[in-house]
Design brief:
about 120 residues; mainly alpha; 1 helix; rod-shaped
Length: about 120
């Protein structure tokens, strides 16, 4: 094999390597294009999620927080009424006990009177 043949063989090998590199570059460029499309899709989804989250925050601030405050105020009113009514109910329970005792006593006396007649 002459030097020229060796040089030609090396050149052919280089050309094949360069062509392989060009093919790999094309595949990589396609992969990068696919990645860019995927990134754009993800960015759009993230943007949509940010928009939805903003809407949720507005609902929480304007509706839920307001309703929780109203509920807490109503609960405070109930507690105040309960504090006011508790002694009244306890007093009424004592009155009912006295009335029951009197009614039982009168019932026994009426029964005794009926039996005596």
């Amino acid at each position: 094999m002459t030097n020229e043949d060796r040089i030609l063989s090396l050149l052919e090998t280089l050309i094949l390597d360069v062509n392989g590199m060009k093919t790999n570059q094309t595949v990589m460029m396609e992969d990068v294009a696919g990645l860019k499309q995927g990134q754009a899709s993800l960015e759009q989804k993230v943007s949509n999620m940010k928009h939805e989250i903003s809407g949720i925050k507005v609902i929480i601030e304007n509706e839920i927080d307001k309703n929780i405050r109203m509920l807490a105020e109503g609960h405070g009113d109930v507690v105040r009424r309960l504090d006011y009514l508790t002694p009244i109910v306890e007093g009424t329970a004592e009155d009912v006990s006295v009335i029951k005792a009197v009614v039982s006593s009168h019932s026994r006396k009426f029964t005794a009177i009926r039996e005596a007649i």
